[in-house]
Amino acid sequence: MEIKIGKSVIKLIQGDITEQDVDAIVNAANPSLMGGGGVDGAIHRKGGPRILEECEKIRKTRYPNGLPTGGAVITSGGTLKAKYVIHTVGPIWKGGGAGEAKLLAKAYENSLRLAVKKGLKKVAFPAISTGAYGYPIEEASRVALKAIKEFLEEDG
Questions:
Q1: Is residue 155 part of a domain?
Q2: What is the pLDDT of residues 22-53, one digit of tens each?
Q3: How many domains does the chain have?
Q4: Residue 71: enclosing H or E segment and its boundaries?
Q5: Helix 38-47, helix 49-61: angle, nearest 10
Q6: β 84-88/123-124 pair status
Q7: With 70 as the cut, is the pLDDT of residue 156 above it?
Q8: 128 part of a folded domain
Q9: Is this model's pTM higher than 0.85 or not?
Q10: What's the rounded Cα separation, in Å, for the pair 42 and 27?
Q11: Which is the catalytic residue, given 21, 23, 40, 155?
Q12: Within a 10 A sphere around the Cβ of 19, how many other Cβ atoms?
């Protein structure tokens, strides 16, 4: 599936995000930025120790208490095909009444802002918060597409 918004194109692809030939991949990270399960663990394993080293530096210098939900930071891609990894923390699903949609949209928006700031053109996103954080995929998809569409209409 492909959607055109202005000069940008959104493509929905199912596959291994660590194998995508893009400028940056987005990591659905946990606040510690130290890797974990799911896509976070896969990115850290495949990207090698450089990503973890950069995340440790970010924790020490900018986010000693962890990256806040909705926040985003960028590191190199280590040994990945992608030159960069944008790490963002999505919300934990608590039933939908705890501001999860707003926080999830922020995770997408802040990731895109970092990509634009770095001059990146091709960015691959996972379905943020839909794994261990329990966000229902259908709802998360609506939030993600709306956030990306609004960002591209305003900034892209």
A1: no
A2: 999 999 999 999 998 999 999 999 999 999 99
A3: 1
A4: none
A5: 110
A6: unpaired
A7: no
A8: yes
A9: yes
A10: 9
A11: 40
A12: 12
Alpha helices in the chain (DSSP H): 38-47, 49-61, 100-117, 137-155
Q: What would the two tokens of residue 22 be?
A: 């893009």
Which CATH number covers residue 84?
3.40.220.10
Residue 154 maps to a domain: no
19 SS3 class = helix
Tokens 């995340």, located at residue = 55
Domain that holds residue 61: 2-148
pLDDT tens, position by position, 53-108: 999 999 999 999 999 999 999 999 999 999 999 999 999 999 999 999 999 999 99
| Gap between the Cα atoms of 22 and 9, Å rounded | 13
24-28 and 84-88 beta bridge pairing: parallel
Angle at 122 between CA 119 and CA 128, to 5 degrees: 110
Q: Which two tokens stand for residue 61?
A: 């210098």
Answer positive or negative: Cα dihedral of 135, 102, 73, 76.
positive
State yes or no: is 40 an active-site residue: yes
